[in-house]
Write a structure and sequence with these properties.
The protein has 206 residues and is of the alpha/beta class. The protein is built from eight helices and seven strands; from the N terminus they run ββαβαβαβαββαααα. Helices cover 50% and strands 14% of the residues.
Length: 206
Amino acid sequence: MMFKQGPARTSGHESASERIVYVVDDESEVRRSLGFFLKTADFLPRPYLNGADFLGDAPDLAPGCVLLDLRMGDPDGLKVIERLGSRMRRLPVILMTGHGDIGTAVRAMKLGAVDFLEKPFEEPVLVEALKRAFAMLTRDVEEERERLEAERLIEGLTPRERDVLVLLSEGKSNKEVAIALDLSVRTVEMHRAAMFDRLGVRTLPE
């Protein structure tokens, strides 16, 4: 049995399109039971019958959470986590383990898994784990969006403005930047003001 008896609880405020759950398990009954429950809990299940198929699709998958079984054929859950690497920022992994696998589950979390569930688990426990994982995913996706936007803005700076930015970020004063770049302090101040305007910031920490 995948689930213990217990009432499911969902928030009801998030759309299924924003709550994709990739179910990676080589047991068809597990995929079916999880898929049925996830649909009733307003998640959007996407089943995978092995780790290899999931890893093959992973680079092109929409952000979502992953319910990953530990005990599968090669690659097993641990190898899947290792091979996902940095992609786990947009595909956070919840590991599903049987009795006796806790030590391996702890190792998986050190590799980046966000949680583990010991089978059989209650439905509310699964929902709470998914809510935590989706909260983390939302934060990571937003941070990635902000990082890409920052890179786009910095690419719009002139070469000299980027030189000034690098030196200022190292903690140098306007005078020290002027000396390093063989400019007047007034010119550095002008580059600094133009740079701040392009980046849409008011202070250096921003």
